[in-house]
Amino acid sequence: MTAPTPQPAAPEPAPPDRVWTIPNALSTLRLLGVPVFLWLVLGPEADGAALGILAFAGISDYLDGKLARALNQTSRLGVLLDPLADRLYILSTIIALTVRDIVPVWFAVLLLARDVALLALPPLLRRIGVGVALPVHYLGKAATFNLLYAFPLLLLSAGDSWLATAARPLGWAFAIWGTALYWWSGLLYCVQAGQLARRYRAHTRTSIHDPIGAHPRAGESGR
């Protein structure tokens, strides 16, 4: 008597296609704050108000995921908006801090190079026929968390007060750790992409060489 062949786990259901939810509203407000933040930092240099926007961005980033799960308001739009807002805040803050000479150019290049490198992954996966999005890794969220803590502290360090002096080493500690996690998560995304590509190619070869066995026979579905 042979053991039954294990069946692959069923894929997780896609989030509902909803728009008007509380988490989506928070993510939208975060996105609207990006150009305001850039204007405040690069225009009148109103760092206090800019810090308020960064604080709201960090708090809402934490809340929207919690509320989506607690209120059962996950949605496809939310899955797109949340990481988009994170990336835009990181990009805009790096640009603003570099223009203001608060952080060196090499630090900005180090962070932006990771995002530019990862931009190539989805087109490469689609080119070989893999249409599955890479799952968000917890290291990526941890990196974003550290960077969103680092940026307000680094902006605060631009002043001349004792508070600025205290914020500088703390801000750089979060920035260095966040950058290390940022690149580590990027490497893990590359590994995930390679695994997806290998599984897809193996499945494609199986389908070509055994087209009948690659699909359930009549009467086998639902077992």
TrEMBL record:
GO molecular function, one term: CDP-diacylglycerol-glycerol-3-phosphate 3-phosphatidyltransferase activity
TM regions (residue ranges): 36-59, 170-191
Short name of one Pfam family: CDP-OH_P_transf
Keywords attached to this entry: Lipid biosynthesis, Lipid metabolism, Membrane, Phospholipid biosynthesis, Phospholipid metabolism, Transferase, Transmembrane, Transmembrane helix
Source species, domain of life: Bacteria
Compartments it resides in: Membrane
One Gene Ontology term, aspect cellular component: membrane
Keyword Membrane: yes
GO BP field: glycerophospholipid biosynthetic process
Membrane topology: Multi-pass membrane protein
Broad class of where this protein is predominantly found: membrane
Family: Belongs to the CDP-alcohol phosphatidyltransferase class-I family.
Name the record gives this protein: CDP-alcohol phosphatidyltransferase family protein
